[in-house]
Amino acid sequence: MPEPLLSVADLRVSFRVQGAWREVVHGVSFDLHAGETLAIVGESGSGKSVTALAIMRLLSTDHARTEGRITLAGQELTSLPERSMQAIRGNQISMVFQEPMTSLNPVLSVGYQIGEALRQHRGLTGRAARDEAVRLLDRVHVPNARGRVKDYPQQFSGGMRQRVMIAMALACEPDILIADEPTTALDVTIQAQILDLIKELQADTGMAALFITHDMGVVAEIADRTLVMYQGHAVEAGSTAAIFETPHHAYTRALLAAVPRLGDLKGKPRPEPFSLVDTATGHTHKPSFEASLPQDDVPPVLAVHGLTTRFDVRDGLFGRVTARVHAVENVSFTIQPGETLALVGESGSGKSTIGRSIIGLVTPTSGSIELDGQEISGFSRTALASLRKRMQILFQDPYASLDPRQTIGQAIAEPLLFHGLADRSSVADQVATALRKVSLDPDMASRYPHEFSGGQRQRVCLARILGLQPSLIIADESVSALDVSVKARIINLMLQLQAELGLAYLFISHDLATVERISHRIAVMYLGEIVEIGMRDAILNNPQHPYTRQLLSAVPVPDPGHRRQRAAATSGTGIDSRSQRHPLSYVSPSRTYRNVSPSHLVLATA
Predict the structure, then answer these.
(1) Do the Cβ atoms of 232 and 40 come closer than 8 Å?
(2) Which of 27, 109, 159, 456 is the most exposed place for a label (fewest CB within 10 A)?
(3) How many CB atoms lie within 10 A of CB 204?
(4) Cα–Cα distance for residue pair 546/537, rounded to 1 Å
(5) Which residues pair with 303 in a beta bridge?
(6) Residue 42 near residue 214 (C-beta atoms within 8 A)
(7) How many CB atoms are located within 10 Å of the residue 423 CB?
(8) CB 90 within 8 A of CB 36
(9) CA distance 450 to 442
(10) pLDDT score of 283
(11) What is the DSSP letter of 562?
(12) Confidence band (pLDDT; 50, 70, 90) for 1?
């Protein structure tokens, strides 16, 4: 057996808390060989990311203490001077973080930032660095790479920003790539391309990868070996195939049980909650409620007709409008009481713009939006504010949605008082009721957002919404950043609330396996248009549009034996990648839809 490229032995990490050291990683050991991919999996707080940061020596020595041995190609890193460590970071070991916007400088172009690593480690300057930055952006599938190399991070979507980060990490063709949840924000087609790209680079260069993730589908797709962490301990390790086939630890079994598998609900008309495994006992708990069916014999909660939203592109000294981005083009759909319509598609397809246009955070260019039979598309901001108690939006990042200076009780009470649904004497009782609805203790009302986990914060956001008794909730990637077991619990909670309260959901997501669990119907979006819409079973099991088939073929399957099948399925789809930016004179072509069945429509292709 060859010597490992990276060896971690008895790693212990402690943080200073109120003057005392608290150990959070307890004696973790593993080896990583050239060309190998090791996945470290576990929930938030399990110690995965702290382990990676310790390897990179990115933990503050004032507040963190690292013990044990970390050896890179025979060189001990824990005692290496900082200047020598700087020569290793980005050159021999690169890291991709989960949230790209916190890693990218908003005042520097992405081309300049990619060029920093090229200048520092490869000595490239001027045009050579720029051309290499373009090549790297093109390699991670950023459209119009040469034109976008001058753009700034805030001009990219979340998925596009992550591609920029991956391009930066790969700039110097490192020996080891540490990827900390690198595909969480990416849609399935780009995720598949990025995973294939990493495997391609590994085959070409012998690069090793340390992959930190909570997505067991990704683990099955890319990892040779898997290390499972729970509360700072490595509780199980072995070949990925063996861990998936015969998991021994109760926590590993719980992780695998919470993974949605595309096709599990084939032929079933209702969504279905997850069965959850107790991490301590290994016992399976099946929810007692039954998911709802939509009320088809009543008027829709939401009716959208011909919705079009375009954004001006301004250039030049005077900011003259020179082009428009056709973000959403002639979109129509309805949602019944008790129904979930899922909007799926890749980053930039217009999913979130539809949600924001409906709720009034973005002004549509044209089209009709009816809420409970009332036309609202022409309403002023003041009029829309009074309507928002009937339609609410649940964002991806719950921490960004909560004021860190407010207790969660104050956060839930604020909209109740604003809309006149409670007064000072009754609001505390209504806050307590809202917290109980989302399975949180009313005594938690006095705590602040930072005192909660990500899943609990999303429950708080749901509680704030439910206090207003809305008929429609727009969930915009609301579970995509959550751990797999936490995601399963939030989905179960949303299904239970829908069954009890008759809520309608517009569920915006790029996670098709989760979409199957929660949706009644699915609308597939591509380049601002709905290309296919129909009942969940019809879309997933009888896809008609080439883009729908591409999306489905790219979904990672939590089965290591399925890798070759997915790789074959994602090749040769033949989908074009037109730009959504058009000159002012551009006229969108008229579109027609073909009836596959009475409730299944597909955009007619030329």
Answers:
(1) no
(2) 27
(3) 9
(4) 17
(5) 334, 370
(6) yes
(7) 10
(8) no
(9) 17
(10) 73
(11) G
(12) low
Which long-range contacts (C-beta less than 8 Å, at least 24 apart) are formed by 539-548? 539/600, 540/262, 540/263, 540/266, 540/512, 540/516, 541/263, 541/266, 542/596, 542/600, 544/594, 544/596, 544/600, 544/602, 545/602, 545/603, 545/605, 546/573, 546/574, 546/575, 546/605, 547/573, 547/575, 548/524
The string of pLDDT tens digits covering residues 174-213 is: 899 998 887 766 777 777 777 887 888 788 788 999 999 8
Q: Across the strands, what pairs with 16?
A: 21
**Predicted confidence (pLDDT) per residue in 44-93, tens digit:** 778 898 999 999 999 988 889 999 999 998 899 999 999 899 889 888 99
What whole-number distance in Å separates Cα of residue 21 and Cα of residue 17? Answer: 6
pLDDT reading at 364 higher than 80 = yes
Q: What share of the chain is helix, strand, coil (3-state, %, to 5)?
A: 35, 25, 40
90: Cβ contacts below 8 Å, ≥ 6 apart? 117, 120, 121, 169, 171, 172, 174
Triad 416, 419, 420: Cα angle to 5°: 80
Highest mean pLDDT among 154-168, 455-469, 539-553: 539-553
* 3-class DSSP string for 186-212: CCHHHHHHHHHHHHHHHHHHCCEEEEE
> Terminal CA-to-CA distance of the chain, rounded, Å?
56
- Across the beta sheet with 593-597, the strand order is 391-394, 472-476, 504-509, 340-344, 521-526, 529-535, 600-603, 593-597
Task: Give the Cβ contact number of residue 84 at 10 Å.
Answer: 10
Examine the pLDDT at 570 and tell me if it is beyond 50. no
How far apart CA 380 and CA 385 sit, in angstroms, is: 9
In this prediction, residues 500-509 reach a mean pLDDT of: 93
CA atoms within a 13 Å half-sphere pointing along the CA-CB vector of 186 = 29
Which secondary-structure segment (H or E) carries 9? strand 6-17
Highest mean pLDDT among 194-203, 260-269, 528-537, 586-595: 528-537
φ, ψ of residue 9 to 5 degrees: the values are: -130, 120
Assigned token pair, 172: 């110097």
Instruction: Using alpha carbons, select from 504, 549, 491 the residue that is nearest to residue 524.
Output: 549
Beta strands 64-72; 75-76: pairing state: antiparallel
The full length of the chain comes to 606
Strand partners, 413: none
User: What mean pLDDT is reported for the chain?
Assistant: 87
Q: Which amino acid is residue 541, in one-letter code?
A: N
Residue 42 has pLDDT above 80, yes or no: yes
Hey, how many other C-beta atoms are within 10 angstroms of the C-beta on 554? 22
Range with top average pLDDT, 283-287, 299-303, 378-382, 510-514: 299-303
What are the residue ranges of helices labelled H in 278-323? none
